[in-house]
Write a structure and sequence with these properties.
By secondary structure, this protein is an alpha+beta fold. The chain has three domains: 9-108 and 237-269, no CATH class; 112-235, no CATH class; 273-304. Helix content is 48%, strand content 11%. 24% of the residues are buried.
């Protein structure tokens, strides 16, 4: 702290820099609480700083979270595992700051995209399995999970996008035979080079409607190529939304700086008024002293 009467400008600049950095991570509101005293709150109303008292944020650290894990559907970035608290209470804040935005990205946006891609990958594997006339039971088609020999379309496709692979029976690097791309995964002998019935069947199957979870934003039924296009479009739309949020966050940070300036900056008009009042008071005091001095001189002359 500066000594009494010294300039506080340097400390006010440091304070403004700190608050500007906070406002980029957490949308804040700044309130005047008397000379040199501030109250800082989140834009949802939580008190973060009150005239010297800091109310610290708390967060439960989690070293690793699987890509198929999702939190609360209503507000996943503020509930449960990702809950940020202040004095034991849930932090109420918009997602325009980087803290809430990153949690929302991790716990809602990215898992939703993962679900979407898992479904597209699962339906891709299911499509090629259903259109392969050489398969029986749950035998895997052209695509499968890792190196699995079977694929059950009735099971959830969670994690399919990161585990989908070419069936080893057709992959030469794994001892497979490439001609099975034309004749079917379970074909035991190579057919004529002109035979393309299986390939045409796969192409037709890709245009048939299959079910998708509309909770991810995809239509409930459509062809595989449509699903892939829809997934890409939704991701591009979400990217545009996050760009807008980034712009909004910048606006809020600017507003926070303006609020701080309005609460703490020096008012030139007020300071000029105070200076004129001091000057007038000084002039009046000088006149009183001069009058008193003259009276003392006159009294001294009378005594002489």
């Amino acid at each position: 702290m500066p000594p009494p009467g010294a300039s506080t400008a340097e400390y006010e600049d440091k304070r403004d820099t700190i608050l500007a950095g906070i406002s980029a991570k957490l949308p804040i509101r700044i309130h005047d609480n008397g000379p040199g005293r501030l109250i800082v709150t989140s834009d949802g109303g939580n008190t973060l700083y009150d005239s010297g008292t800091v109310h610290r944020l708390a967060f439960t650290h989690t070293p690793s979270i699987g890509s198929d894990v999702r939190f609360g559907a209503t507000a996943p970035y503020t509930d449960g595992l990702s809950g940020v608290t202040v004095d034991g209470m849930r932090l109420r804040v918009s997602d325009s700051g980087s803290i809430a935005a990153n949690l929302r990205m991790r716990d809602a946006t990215m898992p939703n995209f993962a679900d979407m891609l898992d479904q597209v990958a699962g339906r891709l594997a299911e499509t090629f399995q259903a259109a392969d006339p050489t398969l029986g039971g749950l035998q895997a088609g052209l695509f499968t999970r890792g190196t699995a020999a079977t694929l059950d379309p009735a099971q959830p496709f969670a994690g399919m996008a990161r585990t989908i692979a070419i069936n080893p029976r057709v992959d030469p690097d794994q001892g497979g035979l490439i001609w099975r791309m034309r004749d079917g995964m379970q074909a035991t002998a190579q057919g004529p080079a002109s035979g393309n019935a299986t390939v045409l069947g796969w192409l037709d199957a890709m245009e048939r409607n299959r079910a998708y979870d509309p909770g991810t934003g995809l239509p409930p039924a459509m062809g595989l190529s449509q699903a892939a296009a829809q997934a890409i479009g939704l991701m591009q739309g979400e990217r545009a939304t996050w760009s807008d949020r980034a712009a909004t966050r910048g606006t809020i940070a600017t507003q926070a700086s303006a609020d701080l300036a309005n609460k703490t900056a020096v008012s030139v008009d007020e300071e000029l008024q105070r200076m004129m009042m001091v000057q007038q008071t000084y002039s009046a005091s000088v006149q009183v002293i001069q009058a008193a001095s003259k009276m003392l001189e006159e009294l001294g002359a009378l005594r002489a």
